[in-house]
Amino acid sequence: MTPRNNTHQIRHTKVLSRAAVLVGAGLLVGLTGCQSDSGGQRPAAKPRPSSAPHGYVEGAEESSEQQSRLVLADAGAGTVGVLDLTTEEISPVHVTPSKRTGGVRGLRTDGRFAFLRTDDATYAVDSGTWTVDHGDHVHYYRAPIRPVGPVGGPDTARVHSDPSVTAVSSVKGDTQIFDRKKLEEGTVPRGRSLSDAGAGAVVPYAEHLLVASAGAGRDTVEVRSRDGAPVAALDEPCASARGEAVTRRGVVFGCADGALLVSEDKGTFSATKIPYGRAVGAGERAVDFRHRAGSTTLAAKAGDDAVWVLDVTDRTWTRIGTGPVVAANTPGEGGPLLVLGQDGALSAYDIATKKRTARRDLLTKGTASAVVEVDISRAYVNDAGGRKVYEIDYNDGLRLARTFPVGFAPAHMVETGR
């Protein structure tokens, strides 16, 4: 990322005006100012095929650093905006009022696209920033922000992608598989239904699909081809699968008795159970994993007053008592556990000692929908009541690095560019 501005508040941050954002949510049909408010980037001229450099992507600008953006949505009015953390500008995603549609009910991301769940459908928005990891080197890209269109109904529960496909799953058990290249081109292709997938997660991984809660007893993780054909059923069960995360070491699924790590080596898939090591009630299970992209350390609420930290590399769980918790996340790899409490304070904990090392008061009201997003050097907390987003330097005693007034209540937030 570019060096951060260390002032406590950036007063010249562009704010969405009421006329620009429009009130109400509905069919995404355009983007106001995406060409001029996206940091001044222009699609690169298409070189001749013989001169195309490694990593070239038509219509995108490659950068030497990660290009992070925050997609923000108002739960009531349906206002949607994209905050560019490099330029400090906000681009409003233009929506059209609909009698059937209220505000935004949920927001997810696969690292590039934001998926907004409303009362009538789930809509995809291309945030215009993403990362391509080749293992030994990484490419960072930025492009114009644009809405794409509806990819599912109002009951979408999970969205996962790889470079080729995007899997959109509903709470009813229906999963649609979309050609990701078409989404990247700005169109929604016809989805392909994945039969007999159950109500569990479907995660594209290693050129296959991992289907949780499949099989006769619905406690099996199946490996399928991208067209849905069965390939293998993993021997290690995962009862009552809830929650999943993709890491460098494989895909983690939350199970009743711990976690299941699914990995692949030369076309062979294997599963390893990581048990809690103690009796854990249903209300204390880890069911919503959060982590920094690329990290193998995951955080999840453990009931109402504690947080689980799962070290995928060491195959260990750590439970940290935090008091009433709203959201948690961690950068991993020696970084702190970051916990937002119901009192609106953000706290940092040393994972090894389980001791709190720093605390900062942030929110005064409306904490229920707040999240903590983490990248390689900063954390972000959305303040719906204050109509702001806070940038925190978690390596410097939770120092408040920047404050972004956004002009609406950002009840939902995801970070893209990862």
From TrEMBL:
It comes from Streptomyces niveus. Residues 37-68 are annotated as: Disordered. InterPro entries: WD40/YVTN_repeat-like_dom_sf (IPR015943). SUPFAM superfamilies: NHL repeat (SSF101898). It comes from the Bacteria. Residues 42-53 have a biased composition (Low complexity). The lineage of its organism: Bacteria, Bacillati, Actinomycetota, Actinomycetes, Kitasatosporales. This is ABC transporter.
